[in-house]
Design brief:
mainly beta, Herpes Virus-1, 6-stranded mixed β-sheet, 3-stranded antiparallel β-sheet, 1 helix, RING-type domain-containing protein, zinc ion binding, metal-binding, zinc-finger
Length: 113
């Protein structure tokens, strides 16, 4: 893999894309990446402290009806949590360096469709 590619794993978009390593030409915006596990989820949970969590990590951080940030221990009520969706259509604008399969990378550049 070339040094100019950025590797991510998507979650929640489709069975074909979930957990599959993708090498992108440009970095994914930080506001799309879970601050805990590093996945790029379709649905994100923004906490008051500024950290972003995927649904899975957010559910793991629930304590007594609130979300406790695993990075700085800030407590957020459900009213404090902002949920956002990353539209599936946005994926079609992402340039893929090469999809990995069995440890090998297809070096052709294309977009997800």
């Amino acid at each position: 893999m070339s040094a100019s590619s950025y590797q991510y794993r998507l979650l929640g978009f489709s069975p074909e894309l979930n957990w599959r390593p993708l090498s992108l030409v440009s970095p994914m915006p930080p506001a799309r990446i879970c601050s805990v596990c590093g996945l790029v989820p379709q649905t994100t949970c923004y906490l008051l402290c500024g950290h972003l969590l995927c649904e899975r990590c957010c559910q793991r951080c629930r304590v007594d009806g609130a979300v406790v940030c695993p990075l700085d221990s800030d407590v957020c009520t459900d009213d404090d949590v902002l949920w956002r969706s990353f539209p599936v259509e946005s994926l079609t604008r992402i340039q893929v360096k090469g999809a990995q399969k069995d440890g090998n990378v297809d070096e052709s550049m294309n977009t997800l469709r």
